[in-house]
């Protein structure tokens, strides 16, 4: 391994000894704190195992040792890294591409906390209809009982069933599982046997049953309990009841719609919830028209728009609207105007950071699950820039992923902003433009899997020129077409 340590005092280094995570071959390496450190190499070379699986995992482990056992359960803990020792390790924050435990309700606004400020703005400075009492910030959130539309519970869509989804083939009989939404195995057989007791013909095509019977089977909210005699016809059941023959058991009936909705809402099994969802159809909520909020919140305006309408605009448009409003609010001297001005300025400042990261086309209302990995990571990066933390090691996973080349300079400016605030950067990256800005480079490889896991070089960027085994070197120093990204996979 070619390693240069003379440029920094060892006391200012993060020193890793004997790292064996995944394919790392018992490697040791030192990197400087308070610098822009980039880790390079083909995919599978071991650079992520070193950056995230070893360095960040150990920083997280040390932090979690300081909190209560109960608090530890709330964290998505990484496995303890296989490493002999790591010295000089500061507290670390990982900005990875995966979305972790983000729920279906998570949005760009909630991820960046911009929605919190926007709700406060509407609560304090919104234009209310005559006679309406002032609403609290929580009343403008679709994730709270106070603000959510009562019809769709803040989802913007309603989910229900139809006869066609519950019974996709009406030429089948109930015995032939015409009611496909019913549970399989014993529970489905139980429901069928209850219908036999009630006198329903389970052996004729579903379409030939009386409509009233079909509707009751599918949509009733009643839960009658009936004696069950498995394997007997309705006439035989009546005869058994007449002669006092005890039933095998008493079964409780549940309508198909009720069964599906209850399973979808309450089941602890993801597989069962997914099965229930397959029998449901969704449509825009007729009460909030997809805006997720209760009617009162949607009547409050700022700059001529309610909060749902403003949140649906691209971030660059929201910024322009707020900048225009800021000029007007700046002239006001009353308490409401002053408060609104402060909130608007805070919003503009945070939005400007996201615009500089090339994210101005996103909407606050856009779901986190629809974001690309690069978009997600840059949103988190933008939030961290405003956090005012210092003395932290930020570990990033290809922050340039999906970024237009013309926005790379803005990304680099944001990263240097974290450095200037007194933090350290450890970035896993393939983008040549980003790599060339490294103050220190760690090249891992030479290839993937068993053929990787070595530290080929650790030191200032120029020193990589002399490392012949490096797959990164020819891309960085223009031995291969300038501007190409370092390949994700090694050449055969």
From TrEMBL:
<dbReference type="InterPro" id="IPR041552">
    <property type="entry name" value="UvrA_DNA-bd"/>
</dbReference>
<dbReference type="GO" id="GO:0003677">
    <property type="term" value="F:DNA binding"/>
</dbReference>
<dbReference type="GO" id="GO:0004518">
    <property type="term" value="F:nuclease activity"/>
</dbReference>
<keyword id="KW-0238">DNA-binding</keyword>
<keyword id="KW-0547">Nucleotide-binding</keyword>
<dbReference type="GO" id="GO:0006281">
    <property type="term" value="P:DNA repair"/>
</dbReference>
<keyword id="KW-0862">Zinc</keyword>
<keyword id="KW-0228">DNA excision</keyword>
<comment type="similarity">
    <text>Belongs to the ABC transporter superfamily. UvrA family.</text>
</comment>
<keyword id="KW-0067">ATP-binding</keyword>
<dbReference type="GO" id="GO:0005737">
    <property type="term" value="C:cytoplasm"/>
</dbReference>
<keyword id="KW-0267">Excision nuclease</keyword>
<keyword id="KW-0227">DNA damage</keyword>
<dbReference type="Pfam" id="PF17755">
    <property type="entry name" value="UvrA_DNA-bind"/>
</dbReference>
<keyword id="KW-0963">Cytoplasm</keyword>
<feature type="domain" description="UvrA DNA-binding">
    <location>
        <begin position="164"/>
        <end position="276"/>
    </location>
</feature>
<dbReference type="GO" id="GO:0005524">
    <property type="term" value="F:ATP binding"/>
</dbReference>
<dbReference type="GO" id="GO:0008270">
    <property type="term" value="F:zinc ion binding"/>
</dbReference>
<keyword id="KW-0863">Zinc-finger</keyword>
<keyword id="KW-0479">Metal-binding</keyword>
<keyword id="KW-0234">DNA repair</keyword>
<dbReference type="InterPro" id="IPR027417">
    <property type="entry name" value="P-loop_NTPase"/>
</dbReference>
<protein>
    <recommendedName>
        <fullName>UvrABC system protein A</fullName>
    </recommendedName>
</protein>
<keyword id="KW-0677">Repeat</keyword>
């Amino acid at each position: 391994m070619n390693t240069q340590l003379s440029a920094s005092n060892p006391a200012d280094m993060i020193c890793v000894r004997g790292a064996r995570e995944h394919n790392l071959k018992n490697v040791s390496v030192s990197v400087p704190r308070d610098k822009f450190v980039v880790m390079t190499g083909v995919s599978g070379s071991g650079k992520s195992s070193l950056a995230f699986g070893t360095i960040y995992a150990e920083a997280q482990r040390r932090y979690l040792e300081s909190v209560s056992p109960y608090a530890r359960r709330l964290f998505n803990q990484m496995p303890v890294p296989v490493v002999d020792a790591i010295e000089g390790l500061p507290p670390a924050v990982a900005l990875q591409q995966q979305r972790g435990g983000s729920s279906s309700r998570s949005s760009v606004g909630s991820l960046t906390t911009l929605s919190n400020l926007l709700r406060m703005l509407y609560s304090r400075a919104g234009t209310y209809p005559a006679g309406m009492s002032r609403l609290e910030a929580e009343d403008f959130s679709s994730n709270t009982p106070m603000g959510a539309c009562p019809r769709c519970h803040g989802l913007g869509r309603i989910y229900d069933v139809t006869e066609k989804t519950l019974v996709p083939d009406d030429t089948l009989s109930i015995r032939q599982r015409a009611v496909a939404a019913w549970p399989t195995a014993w529970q489905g057989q139980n429901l069928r046997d209850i219908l036999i007791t009630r006198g329903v013909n389970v052996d004729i095509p579903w379409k030939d049953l009386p409509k009233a019977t079909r509707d009751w089977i599918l949509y009733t909210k009643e839960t009658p309990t009936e004696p069950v005699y498995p394997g007997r016809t309705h006439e035989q059941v009546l005869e058994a009841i007449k002669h006092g023959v005890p039933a095998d058991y008493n079964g409780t009936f549940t309508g198909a719609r009720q069964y599906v909705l209850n399973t979808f809402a309450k089941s602890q099994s993801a597989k069962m919830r997914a099965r229930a969802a397959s029998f449901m159809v969704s449509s825009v909520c007729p009460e909030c028209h997809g805006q997720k909020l209760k009617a009162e919140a949607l009547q409050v305006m700022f700059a001529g728009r309610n909060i749902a309408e403003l949140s649906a605009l691209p971030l660059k448009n929201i910024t322009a609207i707020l900048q225009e409003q800021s000029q007007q609010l700046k002239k006001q001297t009353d308490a409401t105007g002053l408060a609104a001005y402060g909130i608007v300025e805070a919003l503009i400042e945070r939005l400007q950071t996201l615009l500089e990261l090339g994210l101005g086309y996103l909407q606050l209302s856009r779901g986190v699950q629809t974001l690309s990995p690069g978009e997600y990571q840059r949103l988190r990066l933008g939030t961290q820039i405003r956090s005012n933390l210092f003395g932290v090691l930020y570990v990033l996973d290809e922050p340039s992923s999906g970024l237009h080349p013309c926005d790379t300079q803005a990304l680099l400016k944001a990263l240097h902003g974290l450095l200037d605030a007194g933090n350290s950067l450890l970035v896993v990256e393939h983008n040549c433009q980003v790599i060339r800005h490294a103050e220190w480079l760690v090249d891992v490889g030479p290839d993937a899997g068993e053929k990787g896991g070595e530290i080929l070089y650790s030191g200032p960027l120029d020193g990589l020129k002399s490392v012949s085994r490096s797959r990164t070197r020819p891309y960085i120093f223009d031995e291969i077409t300038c501007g190409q990204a370092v390949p994700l996979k090694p050449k055969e």
